[in-house]
Automatic annotation (TrEMBL):
It comes from Pseudaquabacterium pictum. This is Steroid monooxygenase. The keyword Transcription regulation does not apply. Residues 632-838 form the Alpha/beta hydrolase fold-3 domain. It holds the Pfam family Pyr_redox_3. One of its GO terms (molecular function) is hydrolase activity. Keywords: FAD, Flavoprotein, Monooxygenase, NADP, Oxidoreductase. Belongs to the FAD-binding monooxygenase family. Its cofactor is FAD.
Length: 871
């Protein structure tokens, strides 16, 4: 119970354990849960009833866009049987009734103070409490403050010239009158074609005498196909409710689904059509957002889906010009939230509906009687703003929140929100957000994300209490790490390219930052759980029992690298070093066959060249651009035991396209059949042959560059030294050396070997296995195995060395870069953050490798630019 007493104004003064701001779905569950755990909770709510966004958004046609089978609380099985949704997508009145039903069922209203706006909250460091000021003049203090204020709860102030001049009624979809609006016989203007516009326009058009829609950006919308909940949707839930809800919790978006592995860019048109039509028919967002595994990664794949939606629009809208105006072209499908509609496009076939394209005819001004666009003055009886929200951060910074040392949250977030897990923020002790920026929130089924946050916060408060601690706050390192990870997740997608509210782009002056966490509900839950399992990682907790802090960063791998590693771990594959070499080679070939093929190049040619002990194979990659192209000799990876001239095929296609170089990938003899120095001898033979034949292979004259990955990087580094040492006309000049995660030493004693010994594909024991096959212990310091140990590193070709943060070979690669530089060579060292030994080669799977490969390609071009100038 709150310790409360009535004040003169009827408001209460109270000291409680937790103040919760907002009585929407987040606030209601938080109150129920914390109360059950023995905390004294006070919820403060601006409205006169529960419901949050569903209290305010009463515009005609307002519905949820996640099926009600999923858009529902799951914390209490009895609640699920006590309530039955009437439709696939419930209307706002039904969803509001559900919120009210929940409030009554758990007797929540007695701890909710309605008609109370929270104006300010400041952290009283002396008392270790939040002091809260409200519109009712109530003064509260609380040990913890939780913002459950919603992501879409502060409507955007109309940013249109003359807004405020109109003399007739003006409505905002986000603040719709409770008694409803009758537009019969009226001339109505609707400004905005996001979800709120698209849901309300068909219904307003049915009533109004004339409806004029002012569209700035057309949106993608798919027909919701609403109606009773389909039996096939109900079946899995009824068969095993717990399993279904668990699957939702560990799904990508909070709705059970099986993500496809099919890439749009690599599948044929009949597969495109089949998959798109199947998703379209569901009338659900998650299938249409997941037609292809790569549609949010690559523009070409995305364009397949976007093009098909435009075809659907053209098939419905009779007037071709209107159809064209309604067809989105300025953003990739899904980078703004697509809409679900009921008869939206059909509405434009009505004679009483007109579409005004604000890109062509911007609003000059709202006037007393209507709207002026271009040279035209239009008269209206009513104007409806469906112009959206100050999303995700608006409601949080609307409260004047001051943390430690007088720092305000608004000030701290001036360049964009900074949070740990979207749950907390440094400088604001005992402050939590439900579905805050930096968490999946609006990219997920909100109900699942709300429940996860409420459970996490509740568990956190219980731990604090039972550990005899009173305050909790993230550390700067943990917060910075999370922000980096969250931005890494967004950076590999197309999301940042759109002017969306996800990017804050809809509110003038709002910083352009991707606000939600796009790594997925499942990955996010795993990170949150891991923070707890690793001893409240990145959280400083203090109180009577002392101070505890296990500082650190929960996610440092690039998100797509992490996903690949998780997938591999789940497959429980045998390790190469557990097999004989022949079996390991066959296994590698099998794994390689399952890779995406990489981009098309101008030509791929297979041939043979004279190796040191007989013919060996090569594969040549020629760019599609006019030649002759500079030539790169490439040595494949595989620890001198595995791989072949064609085993790094996708990587070489990618490098060929990016660099515009002709690449010749060569075989060399493998251990244990041919041990050291056979591979080196073949590498030198390849260098001589490719250099001598560059022009007859169709390449440009002049020195070739060498490149290689892993053991192939070792070979490339070694031939540079041998060519320098052996001199003579038969040992050609080398334009540059590109070494991707190379072996440069025979010792395996660096910190990176210890830190990354296991779990990142190339393990310390696999390296041991490679070395044991390749060379006797006594030879492993020979510079032809350990180029780092060469007597002199002076006079070598310019180098570009790439190291991966989570690679056992990281430190020796970095050491070689430093040593080359110290010896006076030109060196570029690219330290690939969050990458492993193998991840940079995973074309179209590890998209975060693209910027690194772009730098590698630029380095190759740079080698030749310099050698041409020198010539
Ligand atoms: P949205 O999706 O932000 O849509 C707002 C619409 O209003 C959008 O079409 C905007 O065009 C338009 N808009 C905003 N400001 C202006 C001005 N100044 N002039 C003309 N047009 C303007 O908000 P909703 O309420 O529809 O939906 C929000 C979410 O709720 C939705 O994604 C679902 O998750 C549920 P713009 O695209 O900015 O050019």
């Amino acid at each position: 119970m709150a310790d409360s007493s009535a004040t003169a104004g009827g408001a209460r003064a109270a000291d409680v354990d937790v103040v919760v701001v907002g009585a929407g779905f987040a606030g209601l569950y938080l109150l129920h849960k914390l109360r059950g755990l023995g905390f004294r909770v006070q919820v403060l709510e601006t409205a006169d009833d529960v419901g949050g966004t569903w209290y305010w958004n009463r515009y005609p046609g307002a519905r949820c866009d996640i099926p009600t089978t999923d858009y529902t609380y799951s914390f209490d099985p009895a609640l699920e049987t006590a309530w039955t949704w009437s439709e696939k997508y419930a209307t706002q009145p039904e969803i509001l009734r559900y919120a009210q039903f929940v409030a009554d069922r758990y007797d929540l209203r007695r701890d909710i103070q309605f008609n109370t706006k929270v104006e300010a909250a400041h952290w009283d460091a002396a008392a270790n409490r939040w002091r809260i000021r409200t519109s009712t003049d109530a003064k509260l203090s609380a040990q913890h403050l939780v913002m459950a204020s919603g992501c879409l709860s502060v409507p955007k102030t109309p940013d249109i010239p003359g807004a405020g001049r109109f003399q007739g009624p003006v409505y905002s979809t986000g603040r719709w009158p409770h008694q409803g609006v009758d537009f019969t016989g009226q001339r109505v203007a609707v400004i905005g074609t996001g979800s709120s516009g698209i849901q309300s326009i068909p219904l307003i058009a049915e009533q109004a005498a004339q409806l004029t829609v002012f569209q700035r950006t057309p949106n993608y919308s798919i027909p919701a196909g609403n109606g009773p909940v389909a039996p096939e949707r109900r079946a899995p839930l009824e068969a095993n409710r717990d399993a279904y809800r668990l699957a939702a919790k560990w799904s990508r978006a909070g709705v059970p689904s099986e993500p496809t592995q099919i890439y749009g860019r690599y599948s044929p048109p009949d597969v495109h059509a089949e998959r798109f039509e199947a998703a379209w028919k569901t009338g659900e967002l998650i299938p249409i957002l997941g037609v292809f595994a790569d549609q949010i990664l690559f523009p070409d794949s995305n364009a397949i889906v976007a093009g098909k939606v435009r075809e659907k629009i053209r098939a419905v809208v009779h007037n071709p010009e209107t159809a064209e105006l309604l067809s989105p072209k300025d953003h990739h499908f899904g980078t703004k939230r697509p809409c679900l509609d009921t008869g939206y496009y059909q509405t434009y076939n009505r004679p009483n509906v007109r579409l005004v394209d604000l890109r062509r005819q911007p609003i000059t001004s709202i006037t007393e009687t209507g709207i002026d666009v271009g040279g035209e003055s239009m008269r209206f009886d009513a104007i409806v703003y469906a112009t959206g929200f100050d999303a995700m951060t608006g409601a949080i910074v609307a409260v004047d929140i001051t943390g430690r040392d007088g720092v305000t949250l608004k000030g701290k977030w001036a360049a964009g929100p900074i949070t740990y897990l979207g749950l907390m923020s440094v400088g604001f002790p005992n402050f939590f957000m439900v579905t805050g920026p930096g968490s999946p929130s609006v990219l997920s089924n909100m109900m699942v994300s709300i429940e996860q946050h409420v459970d996490w916060i509740s568990d956190c408060l219980v731990r604090l209490r039972s550990d005899g601690l009173s305050t909790i706050e993230p550390t700067p390192q943990a917060e910075a790490g999370w922000m980096q990870h969250s931005q890494d997740c967004a950076a590999i997608t197309l999301f940042p390219s759109a002017d969306s509210w996800y990017m804050g782009a809809n509110v003038p002056g709002k910083p352009r930052v991707f606000l939600p966490y796009v790594g997925g509900v499942d990955a996010y839950r795993k990170a949150c759980d891991e923070v707890v399992a690793r001893g409240d990682l990145g959280l400083r907790r203090s109180g009577p029992a002392g101070e505890r802090c296990n500082d650190g960063v929960v996610r440092q791998l690039q998100p797509d690298v992490g996903m690949v590693l998780d997938m591999l771990a789940a497959m429980n594959l045998p390790t190469f070093d557990s097999m004989p070499p022949e079996a390991a080679r066959a296994f590698l070939a099998q794994l390689n066959a399952a890779r995406p093929p990489g981009p098309a190049v101008g030509e791929v040619l297979d041939g043979s060249f004279p190796g040191a002990a007989g013919p060996l194979n090569y594969r040549l990659y020629r760019p599609a651009t006019p030649g002759p192209h500079p030539v790169v000799l490439y040595y494949h990876g595989g620890g001198w035991v595995l791989g072949s001239a064609d085993s790094d095929d996708p990587l070489l296609r990618d490098l060929c396209v990016r660099s515009g170089c002709l690449i010749v990938s060569v075989d060399y003899r493998h251990a244990p059949e041919a041990c050291f120095p056979a591979a080196v001898d073949d590498a030198m033979a390849a260098l001589r042959w490719v250099s001598a034949n560059a022009e007859s292979l169709g390449g440009a004259p002049g020195p070739v560059a060498v490149a290689g990955w892993s053991a192939g990087g070792n070979q490339a580094a070694v031939v540079c030294q041998l060519a320098r040492d052996q001199g003579g006309p038969e040992n050609p000049q080398i334009a540059g050396q590109l070494l991707l995660t190379p072996v440069t030493d025979g010792e395996r004693s660096t910190a990176s070997y210890r830190e990354n010994a296991e779990g990142y594909v190339l393990t310390a024991s696999l390296m041991q296995w490679f070395f044991d096959h390749y060379a006797d212990e006594a030879d492993r310091h020979d510079p032809r195995i350990a180029p780092l140990r060469a007597k002199s590193l002076a006079g070598l070709p310019p180098a570009c060395i790439v190291t991966g943060q989570f690679d056992p070979l990281r430190d020796e690669g970095a050491a070689y870069a430093r040593a080359l530089e110290a010896a006076g060579n030109r060196v570029q060292h690219i330290a690939a953050r969050g990458h492993t030994h193998t991840s940079l080669t995973m074309i179209d799977v590890v998209v975060s490798g693209e910027p690194v490969r772009a730098q590698m390609a630029a380095a190759l071009r740079g080698f030749f630019a310099r050698s041409t100038v020198a010539a």
